[in-house]
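NADH-ubiquinone oxidoreductase chain 4L
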Amino acid sequence: MNLFMFVYMYMYIIGILSLCLVHKHVFMCLLSLEFIILSLFLLLYYYLVSFNFEFYFVLIFLTFSVCEGVMGLSVLVSLIRSHGNDYLKSFSLVMC
């Protein structure tokens, strides 16, 4: 495997670890998820370039990742408006 492949895999593992270890704020969880999506995008792009495949799937993947980011930010804004902060421990996950 190439050096770039190792770097992208390392980015993915660091993103998973940061999602598991740093979970005090919702915003930090969203940033970790975006970092994981970025590393998966780079890994997919490297794979498609190395085997000379077409890039339509990369465009679809970017579209879905942007939609995921927008939905995460809308949930963050909704939580801040309803609870006043973005701490995960300040609200119950089962909302009435």
